Amino acid sequence: GQNIDQPTEMTATEGAIVQINCTYQTSGFNGLFWYQQHAGEAPTFLSYNVLDGLEEKGRFSSFLSRSKGYSYLLLKELQMKDSASYLCAVVWAGGYQKVTFGIGTKLQVIP
Amino acid sequence: GAVVSQHPSRVICKSGTSVKIECRSLDFQATTMFWYRQFPKKSLMLMATSNEGSKATYEQGVEKDKFLINHASLTLSTLTVTSAHPEDSSFYICSADTDRPSYNEQFFGPGTRLTVL
Hints:
The complex is a heterodimer of chains A (111) and B (117). Chain A is built from no helices and eleven strands. Chain A has 111 residues and is mainly β. Chain A is globular and about 45 Å long. Chain B is mainly beta. In chain B, 0% of the residues lie in helices and 51% in strands. In chain B, strand 5 and strand 6 form a beta hairpin. The interface between A and B is medium-sized, with 23 and 24 residues.
């Protein structure tokens, strides 16, 4: 299957750092997205990783290890507005750009 | 750039009626458009993939005769939920893929919340 695993819920304190992990089946892997989704809204793009390593973009960073089938999203200097679901989505090799989403990690930032 | 719109944003209909949802790429041509469904507290589930001028590719378990997809142009795809029932109530989201050489990011529409009474 194309199982994508990520924690369902996390809680972190405002100003802190939080890491959200995602593991996936490596067969057919082509790339990995992280999206942010606030309740009742469509997902918004955060990052896309194809190669191994860490990509930093402001307060958000994303890491990928292709051989281990592992990625994480790192959020620094947490703000209350960061409370949202964070979706890990894998792009599979094939004719179309098929993307499978994980269940999402609901992050709650507390004061 | 890369804005995707959906219409309507919300729709309430009676059981047995059909509902059409439009997805438009406003400032780019979408090579491929995707339709997702999201139930409360669940992740996005891909329903179908459509390319302009060809039949949509449906995911396993999605009834193609119930969820009609028409990808009439490179900027418009429509999803028609035929003979809707209460269990079809969900958040329907479309996304569009571009042919930008950098990477194939999917741009999501704002979603359509369907409630079937």
